[in-house]
Backbone:
């Protein structure tokens, strides 16, 4: 589980709120992994992946628009990382997920938590600086 801390705040309110929402999506992935009441989690996994894809596209667009607005010098490197994230999510093989659901939930969870924390703490912090 990932808990938002004020140290993750970059100081741009609308981006910080969007980052908090990414944490919420990640935590729903975590909750799904930990929920042993569901025998078949496939539909829930797919729904979360679609939500993650849609929301990150929305968030990245907002963040990129803000970077352009403030003439952020590292805009292009951020854009490349954003595009890579979206590509990774879009390349998830839904058929593979059905074979070992918990394994794939764990992989998605690790990818999302690692990427979000790394990106916010090392890249996005510079936007607010």
Residues:
């Amino acid at each position: 589980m990932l808990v938002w801390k004020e140290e993750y705040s970059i100081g741009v309110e609308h981006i910080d709120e969007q980052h908090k929402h990414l944490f919420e999506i990640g935590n729903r992935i975590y909750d799904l992994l930990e929920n042993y009441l569901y025998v078949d989690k496939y539909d829930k996994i797919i729904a979360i992946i679609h939500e993650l894809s849609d929301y990150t596209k929305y968030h990245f667009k907002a963040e990129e628009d803000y970077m352009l607005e403030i003439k952020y010098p590292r805009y292009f490197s951020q854009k490349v990382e954003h595009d890579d994230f979206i590509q990774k999510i879009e390349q998830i093989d839904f058929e593979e997920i059905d074979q070992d659901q918990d394994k794939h939930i764990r992989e998605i969870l690790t990818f999302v938590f690692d990427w979000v924390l790394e990106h916010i703490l090392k890249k996005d912090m510079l936007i607010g600086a």
Remarks:
- The helical segments are 13-34, 42-69, 75-90, 94-99, 101-128.
- The two ends are 28 Å apart (CA to CA).
